[in-house]
Amino acid sequence: MKPSALSCTVALIFTAMIGQSAATAGNEPIQPITSAKVTNPALVELGKKLYFDPRLSKSGFISCNSCHNLSMGGTDNIKTSIGHHWQEGPINAPTVLNSSLNLAQFWDGRAADLQAQAGGPIANPGEMGFSHTLAVGMLQTIPGYVAEFKKAFGSDQIDIDKVTKAIAAFEETLVTPNSRFDQWLKGNKRAISKDELAGYQLFKKTGCIACHNGPAVGGNSFQKMGQVEAYKASSPAEGRFAVTGKEADRFNFKVPTLRNVEMTYPYFHDGAANTLTEAVDTMARIQLGKRFTPEENAKVVAFLKTLTGDQPAFRLPILPPSSDSTPRPTPFDRK
Amino acid sequence: MKPSALSCTVALIFTAMIGQSAATAGNEPIQPITSAKVTNPALVELGKKLYFDPRLSKSGFISCNSCHNLSMGGTDNIKTSIGHHWQEGPINAPTVLNSSLNLAQFWDGRAADLQAQAGGPIANPGEMGFSHTLAVGMLQTIPGYVAEFKKAFGSDQIDIDKVTKAIAAFEETLVTPNSRFDQWLKGNKRAISKDELAGYQLFKKTGCIACHNGPAVGGNSFQKMGQVEAYKASSPAEGRFAVTGKEADRFNFKVPTLRNVEMTYPYFHDGAANTLTEAVDTMARIQLGKRFTPEENAKVVAFLKTLTGDQPAFRLPILPPSSDSTPRPTPFDRK
To answer: What pLDDT score does B333 carry?
Structure first.
């Protein structure tokens, strides 16, 4: 038994599933993405504005959308992100798309959910460089925001809990249903090509599915980066160890979703793999001890590209203007 | 006769107009904004994607929309913009909204039109820090873009002329009709309040209208910053002098549009005025040798806020993903 299978208890279950020949959505280890249900539209609209608002950063230049760009698969497509004063981030920005399906947030899972995550970058000196107190104080001076908070929460008193709740509510809508693979899962056998299907079969047979499964094709477990062969990361990140302090968790990272993976390059927590070809090759080698032929690799990559779903479709939000009493951003203040 | 009137030949014409008491759109010195007519929708869609695409910068982080943010009145709401590697820009980013109505582009008018402007920031080392050759080469490796250029231009050969033409075509759609003031101009006398109308009368009577007139309420002449009283700029910019080399053009800047001015703070080419109150006070003093009472100032500001029109309404564009051969951005490369 391979080390990867030993560490993934779920792998055994899926191995059993893979044995079935006539695939239907019901017994596949990947399930279709379902559309988001919006229960409080005012909250989602407010969250959308906050998500796009660079005034939540010290500089007035960096918004959530700067590094989790919804025009680009919910990422920045940069190896590691750019923070306040052009600081080089320590890790690759994970996609916000379908992030509501993750078991926890950040690569090391240090935030339990989207709301807990949303406050992080705002106050991180290496990211947006602001503070929760300053962000809330700023928002409270903007009449347009005060009115929207009142509409969403029934009160015009703003606090960081409401800010992050609104951002999380918007982020929960950022699911990407209707990929070609989901159409196939739902019974449209012509939605994917013969090669793409062959790639999916390889993806299951080789064992990728052991960790990349479920509706998000990942996001539901922590796994060691380098199960079979050590991974030489270009990032200092220690993964789950930083949260639990347990040696066994060193270099354990949240398995990323493979939904929209065609758009979320570069890959891995250190952004070291520029292409899907490279990422598939490395993963097979260091996680599963396998080597794909170029033809096999191409088929797996073709399958992965069928996971691109409907991207978020909404009007660019128009932000309420600052008032005379709104503190102005200080982008060039080094303190 | 005041120096401002001497230098603005148009002023005399408008002074005559101001004498009329029953204002109608026909004889007002400000005309309503008309909606944009799109003749080549494929070109506009392509231009919209390019406008939002940070891959046109060396870092992969800065797009046209970074400094001319369409969520924020087509500006960045920062005193002077942030460029590649967090460089501090020399001048305040003018709004892209209604910029097709300007007599020329940039504060000093060094670009004749939007197409000529669009190439500037891409190749400016202090802004997007890229080059036209690199930008075109990058686009040519992206199949989604190649297809869109073919659709818009009938050829899949990309060049910088086509890139800037597409961006300009999108920018031409960024007009903001239907402001409350335009509704008033068109005959809806209840569209603006008594105080707002009084502010407009003051705006004309005091002479602001001499330079801020036409559909864009500005943008149609160069004028000296500090006609009556010298202006102590916090920016080294020399204005039109940098283009013509004529001493008479020193500190002559393009008169900015006042459309959506409520959203385009801070004000002036050096971004020194944080509020409309401050901007109106300074302008009256240094351009016209007048001092508004606080009540007068408030009325003029109230009028200016009626110039906010319908903001651009479109879906956030989804950018075509890079291919394996697309050169990756190099944000932390200092060369």
So the answer is: 85
Is the full-model pTM beyond 0.80? yes
* CB < 8 Å & 24+ apart, contacts of A243-249: A243/A108, A243/A109, A243/A110, A249/A222
A131, A147, A171: which is the final residue of a domain? A171
pLDDT in tens, A158-195: 999 999 999 999 999 999 999 999 999 999 999 999 99
What is the C-alpha to C-alpha distance for residues A317 and A320, in angstroms, rounded to an integer? Answer: 10
Which residue in A81, A322, A326 has the most chain B C-beta atoms within 10 A of its own C-beta, making it the best mutation to test that interface? A322
Q: Are residues A57 and A155 in the same domain?
A: yes
Whether A307 contacts A260, CB under 8 Å:
yes
Residue B109 lies in a domain: yes
Interchain contact B332–A (C-beta under 8 A) = yes
Q: Which residues of B touch A69 (CB under 8 A)?
A: 54
E strands, A56-170, are 82-83, 87-88
Contacts of B82 in chain A (CB under 8 A): 59, 61, 331
- Percent of chain A past pLDDT 90, that is, above it, reads 90
Two tokens at B177?
Answer: 């009709």
Is residue B237 a part of any domain in this protein?
yes
Residues B210 and B295 in one domain: yes
CATH (domain of A209): 1.10.760.10
| pLDDT > 80? residue A287 | yes
What is the complex's ipTM, to 2 decimals?
A: 0.92
Q: Is residue A22's pLDDT more than 90?
A: no
Residue A131 belongs to what domain range?
A: 41-171
In a domain, A329, yes or no: no
Residues 275-304 of chain A with CB under 8 A from chain B are 275-277
Domains contained in chain A, number? 2
> In this predicted structure, what is the pLDDT of residue A1?
36
Cis peptide before A266 (omega within 30 of 0): yes
Query: In the listed set B171, B199, B221, which residue is the last one of a domain according to the structure?
Result: B171
Q: Looking at the structure, do residues B49 and B159 belong to the same domain, yes or no?
A: yes
- A331 is a domain residue: no
B126 near B118, Cβ under 8 Å?
A: no
Q: Which residues of A touch B53 (CB under 8 A)?
A: 71
pLDDT at A257 over 60: yes
Q: Are residues A220 and A103 in the same domain?
A: no
pLDDT of B116 above 90 = yes
Pair A157, A185 in one domain: no
Q: Which residues pair with A111 in a beta bridge?
A: A105
Q: Do B54 and A69 touch (CB under 8 A)?
A: yes
Q: Is B318 an interface residue toward A (CB < 8 Å)?
A: yes
